[in-house]
Amino acid sequence: ARPEFKAMFLDDLLNGARFQVGAPLADAILFTRHWGFEATDVKVPVHWWHGNNDHIIPHSHGVHLTARLPDATFATIDGESHLGGMGVTTEVLDQLMSN
Predict the structure, then answer these.
(1) Which residues share a beta bridge with 77?
(2) 88: which DSSP letter?
(3) What is the three-class DSSP state of 12?
(4) 27 — alpha (psi -120 to 50), left (phi > 0) or beta?
């Protein structure tokens, strides 16, 4: 992936919600509602990385959801928690930029 995209991605993750609580609140509300589609309706490839020590969204939930997606790959980030993807940012961005 190009360095400028990596820097922009990391900046968004680190500073995006710095002065707001709206996003986590919106997430909590959305978890209780139907999203307007089923996982089986997703027709694009999905690449999912999930830490197996995630205490916010359990690893088993990621496994369960990706099993319902028609075209998904799942990668466990061993020993990582909810933001474990930051440790594999280069891998994630390289995969996304290759599609």
Answers:
(1) 51
(2) G
(3) helix
(4) alpha
